Amino acid sequence: MAEPLVAVIMGSRSDWDVVKTACETLDDLGIANEARVLSAHRTPDQLAAYVETAEDRGIRVVIAAAGMAAALPGAVAAKTALPVLGVPIEGKLLGGLDAMLAMVQMPPGIPVGTLAVGKPGARNAAILAASIIALQDDDVRERLHAFRRDQTQAVLDATDPTVG
Ligand code: RP5
Known about the structure:
The chain is of the alpha/beta class. The protein has six helices and five strands; from the N terminus they run E-H-E-H-E-H-E-H-E-H-H. It has a five-stranded parallel beta sheet. Strand 3, helix 3 and strand 4 form a beta-alpha-beta unit. Helix 5 crosses helix 6. The radius of gyration is 16 Å and the shape is globular. The site of 5-O-phosphono-beta-D-ribofuranose (RP5) has 9 residues, from loops.
């Protein structure tokens, strides 16, 4: 089994239904990944310890998903210079807008690349992680191009919704 290139962190086990979309998409792209539940608020020390060793272990991108106050991606970005992609999780009060604004409104100097709320964001986080890794990995670049070609063909195949 290849060493993971992407770390996928979620603030709670309850986020997994959304986060698994990112892991499945990374699997489809042939990018080794590891998923962890670690919380900025509930397990801050364990989160910091995990993130601080990530780059030396070969991780190239971190995807961090959280709901509500959603400090997780910012807390990760505070501890690593690796690219951090944030996925806001839907919540009952504001449908994920709260988490999205928490991720988008990072102070200058510590960026988080924030994706859409929920599963669309989880999928795009994985594809964007692939784009970043593809800059220096020819195999991933080839698989990413094939992935996008397949996606384009799937849309064209569905152009006439009355067929099939
Ligand atoms: C956030 O609080 C988590 O990312 C989750 O989206 C939300 C609620 O967590 P649980 O109460 O379901 O554990 O930190």
